[in-house]
Design goal:
With 178 residues, the protein is α+β, with helices and mostly antiparallel strands. It has 2 domains: 2-94; 96-177, no CATH class. It has 3 helices and 8 strands. It has helices at 2-29, 38-55, 62-95; strands at residues 97-105, 112-119, 126-133, 139-146, 153-155, 160-163, 166-169, 176-177. The strands form 2 sheets. It has a 5-stranded mixed sheet. Strand 6 and strand 7 (166-169) form a beta hairpin. Helix 1 packs antiparallel against helix 2. The protein is elongated and about 65 Å long. It starts with a helix and ends with a strand.
Length: 178
């Protein structure tokens, strides 16, 4: 049974690290955000840490011991990083005001886009962002414009949308970021 703790903790932490880095990549490059919320990743990293500590009792060979210690160290570091991300995003979200103000649907209801106004107050700027909703919790930021408060949206066909005179082909995954 101890050998299963060792293996599961290692697989969980590899999964968690991969999803965490993809989450950072997708936010920077406006690709589909398929990662679960950060608090779920935090819980997975804590579970990997607990299983890693239990798996440290497995002393079959050097590779198993190394994998156990590597899992414990990486999971504890990752837990601290994710916890700091959670705390910083909680603090930043209290400073920045995000207000959902519009939801639009394509003519054939294939696409749903939610628009949010954000304002960082005197510490930053303000603007509008549009997020295309996918299945489950998946989202993709398709529109991001600073220093604007209003938007005009027109659908030219089921896959083409014009937001503030910026045409986007959603079928090809186009995005706009000012």
């Amino acid at each position: 049974m101890i050998t299963k703790y060792n293996a599961w903790s290692f697989y969980l932490i590899v999964f968690c690290v991969g999803i965490f880095y993809y989450s950072i990549y997708s936010n920077m490059n406006n690709t589909w955000l398929i990662a679960p919320p950060h608090y779920i990743l935090f819980l997975i990293s804590i579970l990997a840490f607990i299983l890693g500590v239990k798996g440290c009792k497995d002393k079959r060979n050097r590779l198993v011991k190394l994998r156990s210690w590597l899992t414990v160290i990486v999971s504890s570091l990752l837990s601290l990083v994710i916890l700091s991300v959670l705390l910083l995003s909680s603090f930043a979200s209290s400073l920045q005001e995000d207000v959902h103000f519009k939801t639009i649907h394509s003519p054939e209801n294939n696409y749903t886009i939610d628009f949010y106004r954000w304002d960082s107050g005197s510490a930053g700027t303000f603007g509008v962002r549009g997020e295309w909703n996918g299945p489950l919790w998946f989202k993709k930021r398709i529109y991001y414009e600073e220093k604007t408060k209003n938007i005009t949206v027109e659908w030219t066909n089921n896959d083409m949308v014009s937001i503030n005179n910026h045409a986007l082909n959603l079928d090809e995954g186009e995005t706009y970021r000012e």
